[in-house]
Amino acid sequence: MRIFMLTGAGISAESGLGTFRDPGGIWERFDPMKLATPEAFARDPDTVHAFYNARRANLRDAAPNAAHAALARLEQGLASMGGELFLCTQNIDDLHEQAGMRHVLHMHGELFKVRCTACGAVHEWRGDLGRQDACPACGTTGRLRPHIVWFGEIPFGLDMIGEKLADADLFVAVGTSGSVYPAAGFVQEARAMGLRTCELNLEPSDNARVFDERAYGPASEVVPDFVERVLREIR
Ligand code: BV8
After folding, report:
1. 48 lines ligand 1 (CB under 6 A)
2. pTM summary value
């Protein structure tokens, strides 16, 4: 069995990272729709750096939850039986990796990475970033930005995403509101290619009626249940 799994902020909510559209967290002070754009960064880099510095600090204190751990078990279980789990995440946290996931496509980039707009080099970066920082590769100061896909920028890995969708038997969306494209359109592409589709979420998403199967509740409960059911079915 080959599963294409799309995760969103909801899978990391119980790890304390907060989501975009539920109340609470740093979204009260910062509006990602206004801040997560190249124009905002050009206009006011210090405020955008502060937005991501706050999120890096949150992430340094966060730990994966039972949902992340269950998906790592599913990846290994499928691989041991000749199948595959392709995990595409909209999240910029590293909780899938911390939970032992071997392959993760971060289509919207990664919070613990920065990119130099002078030389293009990408570096691991877990602390605060500011205009005074210099690129470790070319030495240029003030040209480092978060290695993150902002609104209006093209997501990473779209070619691989198209190939893996065409290759899969089942499409599963976990913890996403289905409100940002092109990720929100993947379920329609999956249906058009004849895949079964399943939504695992706290509550029905914008796309809910499109899914063949749906299970609602906290990811730390519905995801392990789903994984145990799939692993039982294929054994
Ligand atoms: C693109 C990184 C062209 C940043 C993110 C005008 C100008 C330009 C573009 C557009 C435009 N109008 C529309 C667009 C397209 C735009 C878009 O979709 N806008 C929206 C607002 C309509 N998209 C883009 O700009 C994209 N690029 O279009 O380029 C292109 C594309 C293809 C080919 C050629 C050219 C780039 C979008 C990427 C933006 N970057 N993240 C950062 O993190 O700071 S987006 C960000 O929000 C996330 O990554 C995610 O993708 C998105 C939605 O978030 P979710 O993960 O779904 O989280 P949300 O809070 O919304 O929902 C959480 C869900 O979890 C809820 O359903 C909740 O019920 C559930 N939940 C909560 N708790 C739990 C839970 N579930 C389970 N358990 C729990 N405990």
Report:
1. no
2. 0.96
